[in-house]
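Re: that backbone. Tokens:
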């Protein structure tokens, strides 16, 4: 088991691994209280290097689902519908890179020159991204990852251009940058 994981019993009597942003594992848990101090959390998170985390496109905190939400009568989006949307987005990306000499097939593979060509931003998008970069001290690598993710979010929506809402969503997927390394 890795340094940032703890075993959690699962319903079949085995164990599953859960990544935790701090020692006790209850950060942002609505049912249990975290008693870790800020220095404890910083020391714990210091075990993961900022440059390593910077290389991960999406990292978010996903709180446990409480029982009432789990049993609510709302119908979640089906896997088949999600798959359809993903397949449409992948087709958009294949078409985007078809004329490229590089053998790209998805946004995650874009190099900086591809990002410049495929991720044109409006003035509103530029301001939003600049503000996030400045306020959170994000790196050039984080900038490029945000643009790749924003392009993918726009593709999933079928939008031809990246909009401020796509940039905002991509920025939200960098929450560990903002929470623990800012």
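Recovered sequence:
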């Amino acid at each position: 088991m890795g340094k940032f994981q703890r075993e959690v019993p699962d319903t079949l009597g085995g164990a599953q691994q859960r990544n935790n942003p701090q020692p006790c594992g209850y950060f942002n848990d609505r049912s249990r209280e975290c008693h870790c101090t800020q220095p404890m959390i910083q020391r714990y998170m210091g075990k993961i290097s900022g440059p390593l985390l910077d290389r991960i496109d999406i990292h978010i905190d996903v709180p446990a689902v409480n029982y009432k939400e789990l049993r609510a009568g709302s119908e979640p989006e089906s896997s088949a519908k999600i798959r359809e949307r993903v397949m449409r987005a992948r087709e958009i990306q294949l078409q985007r890179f078809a004329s490229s000499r590089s053998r790209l097939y998805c946004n995650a593979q874009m190099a900086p020159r591809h990002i410049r060509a495929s991720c044109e931003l409006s003035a509103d998008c530029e301001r939003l991204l600049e503000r996030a970069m400045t306020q959170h001290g994000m790196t050039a690598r984080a900038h490029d990852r945000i643009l790749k993710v924003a392009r993918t979010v726009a593709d999933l929506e079928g939008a031809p251009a990246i909009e401020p809402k796509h940039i905002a969503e991509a920025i939200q997927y960098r929450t560990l940058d903002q929470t623990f390394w800012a």
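The longest strand covers residues 5-9. The beta strands are 5-9, 15-19.
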